[in-house]
Amino acid sequence: MIGVLVADDDFHVAKIHTKYVERVPGFSVLGQAHSAADALTAVAELHPDLVLLDIYLPDDNGLNVIRRVLDQAASDDGSAPPDFIVISSARDVASVRRAMQLGTVHYLVKPFGFAALRERLTAYEELHARLTTLDDQTADQADVDALYGLLRGPAALPSTLPKGHSAPTLQRVRDAVRSASDDMSAAEVAALVGISRPTAQRYLAYLARHGVVELRLRYGVTGRPEHRYSAATS
């Protein structure tokens, strides 16, 4: 389980974000903090893997919290700091730039819904798992590219789907491809999701057009090439 600390000055918002996190498999909320001082204490005591951190805290800027956590980790031998996802209503470019410079893995602008946070958490979980697999190994360029692709997260889809497309079905098709260990055909996706092959093909084509999945052709001895789909890595 990936341990999460939710840090937000608004008790109601922190509760909502906690419920969001707990709906995502593989994540567990270790605690909540409502000030910079509380966040620093909670990081030291709970040792979370990930912190959902607001910028506007009553006693300090949340970005200063990140800097202090990183500085403390640098001064401690073998101490690994948590990762941070900024969750804030701050939209100024200076805040976004500073968050990037501090190495935050994502930046979510309030207000946002469950689906937006789930996307970032799912991408983070994949990144966390890949880093664990590569631990104590030497990464080649393909490994580095894959890690940065996961850090960027999945490509965003338009908020309005074309006629005849269902958002829940699109999400299920997308999840099926992303969770697969190898590329998949439309027939395989259809069987896994529980839809017809033409329907799966239609959704896969839509995802491919928006860069969410990658299409490659597998050529056999005779006949037309088979379309195979895998999760996009960039």
Keywords:
alpha/beta, 48% helix, Rossmann fold, 2 domains, single chain, Arc Repressor Mutant, subunit A, two-stranded antiparallel sheet, two-component regulatory system, 234 residues, globular
Radius of gyration: 20 Å
Strand content: 15-25%
User: Which spans of ≥5 residues are poorly predicted at pLDDT below 50?
Assistant: none
Q: What's the number of extended β-strand segments?
A: 7
Shape: globular
Task: Give the helix proportion (percent range).
Answer: 40-55%
CATH homology superfamily of the largest domain: Response regulator
Give a brief outline of the structure.
With 234 residues, the protein is an alpha/beta fold.
Explain the overall architecture:
The chain is α/β, with parallel strands linked by helices and 234 residues long. The protein folds into 2 domains: 2-117, 3-Layer(aba) Sandwich (Rossmann fold); 167-231, Arc Repressor Mutant, subunit A (Orthogonal Bundle). 48% of the residues lie in helices and 17% in strands. The chain has helices spanning 11-22, 36-46, 62-75, 93-101, 114-134, 141-152, 167-179, 186-193, 197-209; strands spanning 2-7, 27-33, 50-53, 83-88, 106-109, 213-218, 226-231. A 5-stranded parallel beta sheet has the order 2-1-3-4-5, with helices on both faces. The longest helix has 21 residues, at 114-134. It comes from Actinoallomurus vinaceus. Keywords: Activator, Cytoplasm, DNA-binding, Phosphoprotein, Transcription, Transcription regulation, Two-component regulatory system. Its main location: cytoplasm.
